Amino acid sequence: MNDGSGTAGLDVSLPPPGAVSPPARPWPAWTRWLEALGVALSPAAAALVLRLRLMAPSILPDPALHTSYIVEGRDVITRYGWLAHVGLLREGGRVGFLVPARLAYLAFGAVPGFFVIRYMFALIAVGPVYLLLRRLYGPAAGVAGIVVVLSSPVIITAWGTDYPDSAIVSYVLGGMACLVMPSAPRWRRAWLAAAGVLMTLALWSHLIAVPLVGVTLAAWLGVRLVRERAGLPGDLAVLAGVAAAVTGLLVLASAMLFGYANFFALTWAGYRYLSQASQTAIWHSANWRWAPYVSYLLVPPAVVAAFAVAVIRRGHAVRIPVLMVGVMAATQVAVYALLQFAGSVQMLEQHYLSSTLWAGVGLAFAVTLAELAGPLWDRPLAQWLPAAVLVAVPLGYEAGPRVPAFGWLPFGVIVAVAVIIAAAAARASGWIRQPAVAAAAIGLALVAFAGAALVLTVARIPHHRPLPQTATGGEPAPAYSSALGGSATGYINSYRIIAALPGFVGRATYPGEQILIWRIAPRKDLYVKYAAGMYHDGFNSLASRTTHIWPADLRQIRNRRPAEMLLLGNPAEPFPAAARALAPFRPSLVHAGELRAGRLVLRVWLLRLGTYYHPPAHPG
Fold first, then answer.
1. What pLDDT does residue 575 have?
2. Do the beta carbons of residue 198 and residue 174 sit within 8 Å?
């Protein structure tokens, strides 16, 4: 008998423990609208109640590169289009993220646009998750699923920057929920189409999504082949057709918003560039020694193991949507580990890449909790206990966020095992005959389950000696510990400054009008580094951080022949001395000023180098 998902053949006369039947009578129309409004407002409610950190530090290479495309993508291409073939404009090919982010910027401005697009990402994630859990277990389980997503430090941190993992984690999370969504036959392919849209957007957001989406669809296909093949060719055709249509729309949008339609070439050039042995040596560690210091990497395998504990029952078939979620999450974890430790892709050692794994981890966590709380879903009051637990645990952490730094051994492994043991305890508690005692026992076990997972996630990387043959020194340093209850004021002010910089500099007046950056500021002033990232800091910056220009910098200027120099720093006094150091290139001051946001001040000089600048061929 079909379960309505179009992907299962479960005999509903023998429901597994914890499953609940749908309500016999439909809810009144006004309650449906109220329910939809509650889901739509849930990100705002979570931000207030859980005090989510609304922006994250951009601890990334050239952190503002994607912001530069969002704010002034055409200018980037005008100045540096000649770099496209060498892969240094690869960020411009990530249109699955850049197109909606650019539209939000045009409609609302820099900081408001940032938060509008993050709200959209949050809704893309929580809407399908809520519907999936609601249809499988009931409305209270749907609310618990929302809280799982909106309280995840990894997902919150991913949303907090302009790196494309902010989009991928939402696209894939929502896409997975749509793929397995139980529905009436007439709506089945509509949900498949929605999944196809989200998965395609993820693919064109960053190449790191290719293995993620690939193994997700492979897992879905494998379960379909084993459990229900009916209609599979048509379903595959729907996914392929939607992928082609979304890609075509992105081509048009990219041409209109950024001035280039062929983002495929940028993506391919970026892939070839990063596949070079020299680049692999920079970004991918030759061994695994860094990993035992990174405790949050134990969360995915612990959640997958807890999922197995929650759903596997002798003599009962696992419902197809639940089975698909588990297979998807397990294969994602396995492929990420293989690519990192048996391959040459930095899937796990860079936190902004490993965060994309939390799409499957988050959904598996939510389904695990729903399965463990099965005896509660048909009880009017007790059914809200899981959601209450998921709110209480982060609030308890915020009251005293003092989780010590630790790695895998011994404490990390102990906490990971505690996640699994807590899941087993919650499942065993469901067999207690007294309802009140069973509910209390399940609630306590869920506190331990959610609390242990949170502790494992937010634990900081312990200090350790430098590790040989590691690309990152084993320290990706994600800011997960401050995602709940942390302040974003400094990050927001920094974002205001970097987004205002292109308006100060102005657009290039002819193709190839290069600009080089001279950061005259201490390295600890990260907001100056972020501002330089708007003009490809790593590629376009002089090495000197003082007014003394180094011989290597002079060689770089002569080789690059820039039309302009952008001087960034804190004090104003050194700028005239820096201009004198550039005397061989006939500098002239275009304009100088200050960009302020809160306590942050960025002083800026824009110099035109007469030796290399030439007026546009057709002024105006």
1. 87
2. yes
Query: What pLDDT shows up at residue 400?
Result: 84
Residues 6+ apart with CB under 8 A from 473: 290, 466, 467
Q: Which two tokens stand for residue 430?
A: 């469901």
Question: In this structure, are residues 491 and 57 in contact, taking their beta carbons and an 8 Å threshold?
Answer: yes
Neighbour-count burial for 436-465, b at 16+ CB within 10 Å, e otherwise: eebbebbbebbbbbbbbbbbbbbbbbbeee
State the DSSP H helix or E strand holding residue 517, giving kind and residue range, or none if neither: strand 515-520
Of the chain, the percentage scoring pLDDT greater than 90 comes to 77
- pTM of the predicted protein model: 0.92
Is the bond preceding residue 410 a cis peptide, omega within 30 degrees? yes
- Tokens 């079909």, located at residue: 2
Helical packing angle, 95-108 and 110-136, nearest 10° = 120
Mean of pLDDT values over 274-299 = 92
Q: What is the pLDDT of residue 617?
A: 65
Instruction: Say how far apart CA 569 and CA 67 lie, in whole Å.
Output: 20
- Other beta carbons less than 10 A from residue 404's beta carbon: 9
Find how far residue 87's CA is from the centre of its chain: 22
The Cα 570–Cα 568 span in angstroms is 7
Q: Span 356-362, mean pLDDT?
A: 97
Whether the per-residue pLDDT at 529 is higher than 90: the answer is no
Q: Exposed, middle or buried by CB within 10 Å (0-12, 13-18, 19+), for 546?
A: middle
Kindly state the helix (H) or strand (E) to which residue 70 belongs, with its residue range. Answer: helix 65-80
